[in-house]
């Protein structure tokens, strides 16, 4: 295990903002007793359980220096979520050069941001013992991929993953950001719940292909965010159509307008359509995202339009936001 990984999971980088104490379970055994309760007893038990659960939930605390957090999520892997997150971050910066944008990769098991943003190396530590993001194309980036070797698998249980997520949220010196785009892992599990409960999120973008099997999980993802009171800004229909580069014939490989039907079901908006195009894949694989490398292409313009729609649906940012100690005058 490398030095950065040991720091991350052992607490060498201090854990801040934890909402409660950690209790080792060790080899203790739990004895579960079943009992029939009367109506009044059952109601009292429910109230007691709710009180205990509410004490155990972490209190939401803004990320220092960050005005607004936008999470990019999908119910299923392989639908282009990370590609969308990267190009959305670049499009937000391209649409308004006065805005500072960051990109946080919380997909611990399969981080994609380092390769897509052409970044390697370990983050440096600030004087206040916070990790400094790596920078490329004007976007500040942080990912688990910076802390482990590219080919090293993370064979971690839930508690270690949650510890790592907590540190990625709290132990990074972002400076001053207008937008932080968070690339979430696929699914609706511990990581999504932890991020949603720990920090205030301005809005969620759900990415899906038009395929029915992907839409089923996208539906679950949207409902999960609603349950944890995160506004869903809308859906991105990725890989919506393929156009033959020779004859220009269009084929809906994954089906036509499936995400639009889901959006109507959920009473959500479609933020935009992204075609299935070779240029997007090649640009991502070479670490030169299409919004940066081919800004005048139709594909890049699709991401730029989506970024405009995202900003239009965001709530107003707070007038002031927490400032990282490292950026205060005199430090």
From TrEMBL:
Protein name (record): Iron-sulfur cluster transfer protein NUBPL isoform X1
Keyword line: 4Fe-4S, ATP-binding, Iron, Iron-sulfur, Metal-binding, Nucleotide-binding, Signal
One MF term in the entry's GO annotations: 4 iron, 4 sulfur cluster binding
Keyword Glycosyltransferase: no
Family that this chain belongs to: Belongs to the Mrp/NBP35 ATP-binding proteins family.
Pfam families associated with the record: ParA
Signal peptide stretch: 1-20
InterPro entries for the chain: Mrp-like_CS, Mrp/NBP35_ATP-bd, NUBPL-like, P-loop_NTPase, YlxH/NBP35
